[in-house]
Each structure stands twice: as structure tokens, then as C-alpha cells.
Amino acid sequence: MEKRVLFVSEVLDSFLITALIKAIEGAGYEVLTTQPHPKEIEDIEDLPNIFLVYLDNDATRYNTTLEFFADKLAADNNNSLYLYLVGNPAEIEAAYRYVPHALVAGSFKRPVNTTDLITQMDLVCTGYSLDADSPENVKTDDAAKLDSGKKSLLLVDDDSAMLRSMQGLLAKNYNIYITNSGMNTITFLKDHSVDLILLDYEMPVLSGLEVFQILRTEPATANIPVIFLTSKDDKDIVMKVLSVKPVNYLLKPISPGILIQTVDNFFKEQEYKEKHKDLKKKKEVLELLEPVD
Prior knowledge:
Strand content: 15-25%
Oligomer: single chain
Shape: elongated
């Protein structure tokens, strides 16, 4: 999907909005701006697939625009349109009176975290669906992409470029899930099972180490293998990583070849151990069945 955004706000020349638009453009997006006037929006040729409504000033002036977007989203049989809301909690809650919660791809409280916003838009543009209010947060939106014959990986990083890079390198041979924060990882794994987690060590709010420790306390996640990703080639950091006994760790920036080889080798070693375990069991059974002189 093209990286194009329709930015809707009553006030388009404030410092905060100008900075936000520049940040979005800096991430490679074409940004069209308009005030909340449905007729003017309807007249826009080649309307972008991403709508970003910045609820500010007099929030009631957005009601008809929200209803307009709700109609477009409801009629979107291909699920190719995405609506994001930015505002304070009261404004966002009021917006849901005019556009159903289920039709909103994500909502962000002011002041908006531009990294989170751009991450969400980046992922939908590369074929992923994520909902900021959904406990899953990020998952593949096409069931056909999930192959029961492939191992499943969960990639965890707050850097959207890093997520895209790893997904592009690993998606050919593995089912890929993505989360972009520690808390989203914890909630995602309550309802999903994966074979390996690639976990960023340094993340805000809930660090990779804290995520790892939480996962180890839950029976359902205690045995999921983890490879840590860290950008610090520091002895103390490495020692902290090794002390919790992950299956491996990688230093960022990661060479594409090393990333692929590390993941492939992990599963090859796991497969070898499983076969060896099965052979050992068969040998023990055969020994029990041998006649005793």
C-alpha cells in the first residue's frame, strides 16, 4: 500500500501539528492536509488509504467528518482503509459516538508518540494489521500467510525499521508475528503460541529483560525460547543477558546473513535434539523387549 496519509485537523498551522506532519513526512509519507469538511474531502482525487484525524480545538466540529469516514470504512469490503484518531481521552471517547470503535485502526492520546503512530502506519503499509487498543496489537492480517508447516516467530522491537527489516528477511521461511512494546508482547502471548521470540533488550517502559522475567513466571510462556537483540556491545550488558540464559543473543545492527543463520541454526539444533531424544527412547524400549537369558 502506498505511504500516503490524509491529515484532518481544524487547525493545521500550530507548532505541534506542523512538527507531527514533518515527522510523518520524514518517515517517507506523502501527507495531504484538510480541515474537517466532508464535502471537500469527498472531492479529493486519489484519496489516501490512511486517514488521521487530529481532534483539537472544538472537537464537535469533527462529528460529521467522523460519520463520513465511518460510512467509507463500513463500505470498504477489501479492508484497505485505516482511520486513526489523535486527541485527549474525552475527545477520543466522544469520537466513538460517530464512528464505531471496531472501525478505528488505532487511537493515540495527545501528546502523540510519533514513533508509535508511524510504526502502526508502517506496518499496515507493509501488509500488517494492528490496533492500538487490541491486546494482540500486531499480527498478520491474511490467514493465508500463516503456514501450519512453518515455525512461528514473534519479533519484538520498538524500532519500526528494525521490525520491517527482520520481517522481510524471515517471512519466507517462518510465520511472523510482531509487537512493538513489552506490554503488548505480554498480552499477545496470553492468547498466542510461538516457537521462538526475538526480543529487543532495550525498550522503554518495560525492558526486554523485564519481559523475559515475566514470561518465565507464567507456565504457558516459561519455556518459549528467546534470542535477545541488543545494540550495546558492552560487557556488563552481555553478562546481564547471559545471566538469564536465553538461547542466544545478537548485537544490533544485525547482519542479514547472521540473523537468518542464527534462527535457522536454532531450529536445526532443536530438530536434531528431538530426533536424538526419540532415538534414545526407541533404544530404551528395544532394550526392554530383548529376551533375558
